[in-house]
Please model this.
Amino acid sequence: MPRRWPHGILGAIGRGLRGKCPACGEGRLFRAYLKVADNCPACGEELHHHRADDFPAYLVIIITGHILVPIVLAVETEIVPPIWLSVTLWPTLAFATALALLQPVKGAVVAVQWFGGLHGFEAARNARQAAAR
Model:
């Protein structure tokens, strides 16, 4: 099966956000919630080179804050809910939002590293460039 390389970095990021291999878009990027597969089960692309580390978590904190802070400010100033509701609702919502975003954001970070040929992904970048010629 010939590989279908992503069209630019946005294609690779889109595949990473969906939890798919950035190279072929078919295989699963993760073998567990946040454990990146060593190889793509569909195309065999090596994915163990990634060095996402804490960067996805920092991005998730920023994204969650940008989503929730305006909502919290609007609700707390307009409706003024009871304190017990605020203390229960906002941390729960922040936790759920962070958990929902963590895997897609990590997938996008791994895809950016793959597309850019960073941290051991040089062979993948060279193969893409050779195929484009």
About this structure: Helices lie at 8-17, 55-78, 83-116, 122-132.
